[in-house]
């Protein structure tokens, strides 16, 4: 597009446009005081429905104890930095955790750490450090990552090594009930003695495999039997047990820890869909073999993060760590990207998808910032007019749609799209208020008689206070719902916008100084009528994810999806 023609606003997810009068972000802002207390939507949420992997259908969620929820989510094996596939799981279940709390439930949320495992032992030996040092270091790194993603801390974060006694007691019960056997210090679960085996995954035993983490052991009665306890090997950590020194198998840990914190019957058990078999299948078998009354009311599983249609995984070395991504993209852009796809579906990782997410969150926060700036100018005024009917209907409709989507198995894709009408309404009110204020200012300069005659003939549909109340209410509704989703920044919006711009510069390989030089060159070219030169500069920057906007006060820039 030639430079002497108006430039299009940056697009967001193909249909979202930036307000033409967007401005550069100041260095800091203080939260404004509202003219009056804004009332967000007040509709009651419909009954919550969740997809149960056991029954393969959505079901009304009815907790075991009214008003309380017990939820267990399988955690990481901390031997390296966590990848984006891990982030997918923990953001998905953080959204559920937050929504349950919003609905008024008292949630006991348990997320474990598998801090003893073959991979940890191997990596620790390679590094020349202890298993405890390695696992503790990467637990700390994991917690730093999920904090950046605004995942709330669970109620409990147990480590396997802290619950060896619970694990041994559970294995004793399984052996007592003739569902496990001992071979040379190893203890194996007998799938032949547990007819319910594979009820969760729906697999056929003949098509079963022993498990991805262990080699087939010819001492087993059935190749599908899996280890509950592993006899000690030289150079590996071990604990005393009735069967000799050793350590737990992979699956038994979660059966023991979930029972310890939540009891034998609890409401929700979650994890990635790759855990359905063998981990959750074996977990279910162990728990019920020891205590037949054991039950999970709802099994929930999230989809994968794929790269080129292949699951992201450390085992095939096709992964990006959370740390890799948030070096170039804001953590809330990554969270938005992860929530953009329904939790049960697979999401495809790409730079383009992350850029779109980053662009969208920038638009959201810039719009809220602009809204706050205008509302703050009227914080001392005693504005008491009601929210205009048009905006109140938008808010009520948005609240109703939000609750319906979230209560229908957490349809976050629809929820995120639903913010767009409110954001457009904010920008519309900002533009209309600006025009109205300019018009009223012009009227003041005219003679009193002319002013009265003009106001009589053409009275504005809305007065400034109507727009202020509309902005106040629209902003409050968006912030309220973003907070429920974990997408409302804890720091001032101006600071977050600056962070988003800094990340965009880093992705573009630019600095503020080098970008300013490009902007000055473009301005000089425009002044000299060299529109082909100025157009080329604009296009080159747009190709790097930097959008230029010419305003009365000068040229400003904002991040955008690369053209």
From TrEMBL:
Cofactor: Zn(2+)
Record's keyword terms, sorted: Aminoacyl-tRNA synthetase, ATP-binding, Ligase, Metal-binding, Nucleotide-binding, Protein biosynthesis, Zinc
Domain tRNA synthetases class I catalytic as annotated: residue spans: 62-357
A biological process term (GO) from this entry: cysteinyl-tRNA aminoacylation
GO cellular component: cytoplasm
Gene3D superfamilies reported for this sequence: Cysteine-tRNA ligase, C-terminal anti-codon recognition domain, HUPs
UniProt region (Disordered), positions on chain: 439-465
CDD domains, per the entry: CysRS_core
Residue ranges with Low complexity bias: 450-463
InterPro entries named in the record: Cys-tRNA-ligase, Cys-tRNA/MSH_ligase, Rossmann-like_a/b/a_fold, tRNA-synt_1_cat_dom, tRNAsynth_Ia_anticodon-bd
E.C. no: 6.1.1.16
Molecular function GO labels: ATP binding; cysteine-tRNA ligase activity; metal ion binding
Transmembrane segments annotated in the record for this chain: none
Annotated family: Belongs to the class-I aminoacyl-tRNA synthetase family.
Protein known as: cysteine--tRNA ligase
């Amino acid at each position: 597009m030639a430079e002497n023609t108006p430039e299009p606003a940056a697009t967001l997810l193909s249909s979202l446009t930036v307000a033409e009068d967007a401005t550069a972000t100041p260095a800091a802002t203080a939260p404004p005081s509202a003219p009056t207390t804004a009332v967000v939507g007040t509709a009651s949420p419909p009954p919550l429905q969740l997809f149960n992997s056991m029954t393969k259908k959505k079901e009304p969620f009815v907790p075991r104890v009214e008003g309380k929820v017990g939820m267990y989510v399988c955690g990481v094996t901390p031997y390296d930095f966590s990848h984006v596939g891990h982030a997918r799981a923990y953001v998905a279940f953080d959204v559920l955790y937050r929504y349950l709390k919003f609905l008024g439930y008292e949630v006991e949320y348990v997320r474990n750490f598998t801090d003893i495992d073959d991979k940890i032992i191997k990596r620790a030996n390679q590094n020349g450090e202890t298993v405890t040092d390695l696992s503790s270091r990467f637990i700390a790194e994991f917690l730093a990552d999920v904090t950046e993603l605004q995942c709330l801390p669970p109620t409990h974060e147990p480590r396997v090594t802290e619950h060896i006694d619970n694990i041994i007691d559970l294995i004793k019960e399984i052996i007592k009930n003739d569902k496990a056997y001992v071979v040379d210090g190893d203890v194996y679960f007998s799938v032949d003695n547990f007819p319910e085996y594979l009820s969760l995954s729906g697999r056929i035993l003949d098509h079963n495999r022993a498990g991805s983490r262990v080699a087939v052991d010819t001492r087993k009665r059935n190749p599908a039997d899996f280890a509950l306890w592993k006899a000690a090997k030289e150079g590996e950590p071990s604990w005393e047990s009735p069967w000799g020194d050793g350590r737990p198998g992979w699956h038994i840990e979660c059966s023991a820890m979930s029972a310890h914190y939540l009891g034998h019957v609890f409401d929700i058990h979650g994890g990635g869909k790759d855990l359905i078999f063998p981990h959750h299948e074996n977990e279910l078998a162990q728990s019920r073999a020891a205590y037949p009354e054991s039950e999970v009311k709802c099994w929930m599983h999230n989809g994968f993060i794929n790269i080129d249609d292949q699951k992201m995984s450390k085992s095939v070395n096709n992964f990006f760590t959370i740390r890799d991504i948030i070096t170039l993209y804001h953590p809330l852009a990554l969270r938005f990207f992860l929530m953009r796809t329904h939790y049960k579906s697979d999401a495809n990782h790409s730079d383009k998808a992350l850029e779109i997410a980053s662009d969208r969150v920038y638009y959201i926060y810039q719009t809220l910032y602009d809204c706050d700036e205008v509302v703050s100018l009227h914080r001392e005024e005693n504005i008491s007019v009601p929210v205009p009917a048009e905006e109140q209907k938008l808010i009520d409709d948005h609240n109703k749609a939000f609750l319906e989507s979230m209560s229908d198995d957490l349809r976050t894709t629809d929820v995120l799209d639903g913010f767009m009408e409110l954001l457009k309404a904010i920008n519309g009110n900002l533009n209309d208020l600006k025009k109205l204020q300019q018009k009223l200012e012009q009227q003041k300069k005219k003679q009193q008689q002319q002013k009265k005659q003009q106001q009589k003939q053409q009275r504005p549909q809305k007065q400034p206070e109507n727009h202020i109340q509309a902005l106040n209410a629209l902003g409050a509704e968006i912030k309220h719902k973003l907070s429920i989703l974990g997408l409302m920044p804890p720091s001032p919006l101006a600071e977050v916008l600056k962070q988003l711009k800094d990340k965009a510069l880093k992705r573009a390989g630019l600095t503020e100084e080098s970008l300013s030089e490009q902007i000055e060159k473009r301005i000089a070219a425009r002044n000299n009528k060299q529109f082909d030169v100025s157009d080329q500069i604009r296009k080159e920057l747009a190709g790097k994810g930097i959008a230029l906007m010419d305003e009365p006060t000068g040229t400003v820039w904002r991040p955008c999806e690369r053209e």
